[in-house]
Fold this protein.
Amino acid sequence: MRNSLNHMNTIDKNRMYFSALYDFAYLEKHFINSPNFRSSFSVRWEFIENEIRDAITDSVPLPDLFHHLQISHAFIEKFLKYLISNFDNDITINQLIGYKHNIQKLLKHTKKINYDLDSKLENEEYNLLETISKMDFPSLRYTQPQVFTINFRTLKNLILKIFVLLKEIRFENTKSISKEEQKSKKDGRIFGHLVKKIAPKKFNKNRFEQILTSDKISNSQRELIQKSYQNSDSDVLLVGNENDLELISAIEIAGEEVWDFGEIRFEIT
């Protein structure tokens, strides 16, 4: 008999889903919607030895694309685990976690439960998925020896297609948290709580003028803002105390939401 403590409840499934969303949120901004990437990244040290000036340079190729690939692997893994958790009523949380980062085993499990992922993808997309499934994820993160070829245009299409499937599965299987599960006050979500704000480092000159002329702030608040910033060639730069609560409050009263967060407490429920 299956151990009920290991049963895949709604909260367990939510954790897979929200974890996948975090990965896609990164991929959408930095990979899918970004046309630019660096060909390399270098760190250089200059030194003098025996009165001769020299330098050491360490370089890594394609850092952005390599990181996109790592996050894509993580996103696909979490998608497959979320898929399986919804279509296999016999799977337990321990069994699913036991697959670790092995996408090959997860793909085999989708076939076992007759989820036809092949038909939902183009040939080149599924071929790429199989290529990714053969990667050793821990080795990928720590640059251990392995060889693979990735078409990043196809990878973009694959990630977008998988995201559509993720939403479909979520829509078809969304359930309320049971009363028993609610007792633990946990639902698999992540919350960010602002601990401390800091005043913006700079404003463009037009926006700064709008803040100063706002009719929502008092003369003393206007004076505080004005003396806390200084004009530069193109922007207005902070010269006052970034932790000044009165300054932060005055800026927000003027209608500027302070997004330059200084400290956030994350709570994973």
Remarks:
- Residues 4-188 form one domain.
- The mean pLDDT is 90.
